[in-house]
Amino acid sequence: MKFLPVLVLLGTSLDVALAIPQGGAPPRCTTPRVRKEWSRATAFERSSYVNAVKCLTTKPSKIGKNHRLYDDFVWVHATIFQHVHNVAAFLPWHRYFLALYEASLATCGYLGPAMYWDWVADSSAPSRAAVFSPTTGFGGNGNQTSNQWGTNCVLDGPFKTLQLRYWNEEVRPHCLLRIFEPGHPEFNITEMYGDNYSPAVMAQVNAETTFQGFAHFLENGPHTAVHSGVGNLGGDMGPQSSSPNDPLFFLHHTQVDRLWYLWQRQSPSTRTFDYGGFRFDGSAATLDDYLPMLGLGPDMKVRSFMDVNAANLCYKY
């Protein structure tokens, strides 16, 4: 019962978002949800979260496609991948995407907070992180006995039987694929590229004083390294557009969002609405640009997703 207010909030979050004056200040939230690191969640929260993810695979598409609600998130991400990566909108677009996913989990009975994987804390031994536990996490590595695409199926955990529809933008049914980077000390390559998202690296990223600099180094450094470390070239989390296939994607990107939040909190008065860079077409990005969601949610302006204390988001870390 203690989670009931969260369900009510999530269930109405899109209506609240639609009510935001697009040119003015949005309403403020008064009771923000607190997002949790996976290893710090209760057993009930973890099992409820996993069950809700599975539930998404039983629901029809929200956007009128011949696939499941689970696949909506993959299809949308893959279809507009180049428009929301390596551009200014990368961080706010994914913040909105995560909020839509969180609301969908609520429709499947998950009443707790969104979760994140703190891969900075686990960077010295990523494969031993709690999120990869077969009993209390998302399962571990895929089958490594073959180099043929589609054979590196996750062997344990709650998603070992998960069947997926898309690979990049193609319909290419397959199991959940993971190929952990084993590390090559002789080439100074650490396990799962952990050195690329270590506390020292994040300190350098956090030292950036502008949104454009921070977003660039976060996306192209730690963010990409985690994708590659978990998926490599043939795994679902690899550096390709259908990475939301892996349920771990959402914990990974919630961590990315957390790091942006922490950077904003270093100087809220100057960083909350600090935004800049370029759109996909090379023109200058602004807070009044729209974030495309292809029907998964209404297209909304960047400025609506800069402040997590706004009523349409209403969370903290």
From TrEMBL:
Presence of keyword Metal-binding: yes
Keywords (A to Z) from UniProt: Copper, Metal-binding, Signal
Signal sequence extent: 1-19
Keyword field contains Transmembrane helix: no
UniProt xrefs under InterPro entries: Di-copper_centre_dom_sf, Tyrosinase/Hemocyanin, Tyrosinase_Cu-bd
GO molecular-function term, one example from the UniProt record: oxidoreductase activity
Any single Pfam family the record assigns to this protein: Tyrosinase
Segments traversing the membrane: none
Ranges where the Tyrosinase copper-binding domain occurs: 85-102, 246-257
Protein name: Tyrosinase copper-binding domain-containing protein
Species of provenance: Immersiella caudata
Lineage: Eukaryota, Fungi, Dikarya, Ascomycota, Pezizomycotina
